[in-house]
TrEMBL record:
Cofactor: binding details: Binds 1 Mg(2+) ion per subunit.
Keywords annotated in UniProt: Amino-acid biosynthesis, Aromatic amino acid biosynthesis, ATP-binding, Cytoplasm, Kinase, Magnesium, Metal-binding, Nucleotide-binding, Transferase
Known cofactor(s): Mg(2+)
GO cellular component, one term: cytosol
Protein name: Shikimate kinase
Species name: Rhizosphaericola mali
Signal peptide feature range: none
GO biological process terms held by the UniProt record: amino acid biosynthetic process; aromatic amino acid family biosynthetic process; chorismate biosynthetic process
Gene: aroK
Binding partners and assembly: Monomer.
Compartment(s): Cytoplasm
Pathway: Metabolic intermediate biosynthesis; chorismate biosynthesis; chorismate from D-erythrose 4-phosphate and phosphoenolpyruvate: step 5/7
Length: 172
């Protein structure tokens, strides 16, 4: 089984990926980490030196390497589904879950780590929430193509129970 987690940065994809990984006994991967490992530099460095277009093409290339793998959970970058028809590819390859966390909760999580996020570095505390609302609105048409949507504020294990039950039945 291939499970792809999508949603905004700070929505909990890595956290929930690890939870689901344990539940389903599947390996967990984080696409951002895979890109950094492959390039031997941070995403921020890639953005700064090569630009977003280069990064998005690289992101797609590394995402598609997962076609050769079976049985995993992969946390996508926040923008991954929005470029290069990645959401269509993901939908064809496995089960997709949009982790739809509130912009307010995401803001609180991202405040301390803004300096490490290329899209957030220059934002003030006040402008961060509006940025998140705008970015979520821009990305929602892609995120809504996910097979499952988990919403809450904050999202809890109970929000995931119906998906776990469905996916458990598919594995049998």
């Amino acid at each position: 089984m291939r499970i792809f987690l999508l949603g905004m940065m700070g929505c909990g994809k890595s956290y929930w990926g690890k939870v689901l990984s344990k539940h389903f006994s599947l390996p967990f991967f984080d696409l951002d980490y895979e890109i950094e490992f492959d390039q031997n530099r941070t995403i921020g460095q890639i953005f700064e030196t090569e630009g977003e277009t280069y990064f998005r093409n690289l992101e797609t290339e590394i995402l598609k390497r997962f076609e050769k793998k079976d049985d995993f959970i992969l946390a996508l970058g926040g923008g991954t589904p929005c470029f290069n028809n990645n959401i269509e590819w993901v939908s064809k390859m496995g089960e997709s879950i949009w982790i739809n966390e509130s912009p307010e909760t995401i803001r609180e999580r991202l405040l301390p780590e803004r300096a490490h996020r290329p899209l957030l570095k220059s934002l003030t505390d006040e402008s961060l929430l509006q940025f998140l609302k705008d970015k979520i609105a821009e990305r929602t048409p892609f995120y809504t193509k996910a097979k499952f949507i988990v919403s809450g504020s904050p999202i809890t294990t109970e929000n995931f129970m119906f998906i776990e039950n469905i996916l458990d039945k598919k594995r049998k």
